[in-house]
């Protein structure tokens, strides 16, 4: 009995410490119109009493009806006074170029693909930040992308 309680306690400590590394881990869903160009998906988060070195990952939830192999997107990371901390245009490959199979994890028709977009980004203590993500596929309404997410983890 005591041995089982000890194992449960160790498991809970590990789970809590893993979650403390995440500054943000959220998804934003799109409606039936899809991901509208020039409309950013915005994710807000803040740091506490320490400077953090972080990794930032983009998470895309998409289905097999998505008409392209790839996704071009732009992201801006802004601080609390809207100064751009980091800005990039990137491409994410969603389907294998040879066999056309969806990349990432999932079952049936929906898949999630995670891609690290920034490594070792320093974020100042006691600050607020926002990540703005825009689709850059030259489609007004990009169908097939169900939601977009951001994961920011402390190293």
Question: Main attributes?
Answer:
single chain, 155 residues, mainly beta, Jelly Rolls, 5-stranded antiparallel beta sheet, 4-stranded antiparallel beta sheet, globular
Could you say what the CATH topology is called?
Jelly Rolls
What is the mean pLDDT? 88
CATH class: Mainly Beta
User: SSE order, as H and E?
Assistant: HEEEEEEEEEEE
Euclidean distance between termini CA atoms: 36 Å
State the domain count: 1
> Low-confidence spans: pLDDT under 50, at least 5 residues?
9-17
Biggest sheet strand order reads: 1-11-4-8-7
What structural class do helix, strand and pairing data support? mainly beta
As a percent range, the share of helical residues equals 10-25%
Largest sheet: 5 strands, antiparallel
What does the model show?
With 155 residues, the protein is mainly beta. The protein has one helix spanning 2-20; strands spanning 22-29, 35-36, 41-46, 52-63, 70-79, 84-93, 105-107, 110-123, 128-135, 141-142, 145-154. It has one domain (23-154): Jelly Rolls (Sandwich). It is built from one helix and eleven strands. The longest helix is centred in the N-terminal third of the chain and has 19 residues, at 2-20. It is globular, with a radius of gyration of 18 Å. Mean pLDDT is 88; it is low at 9-17.
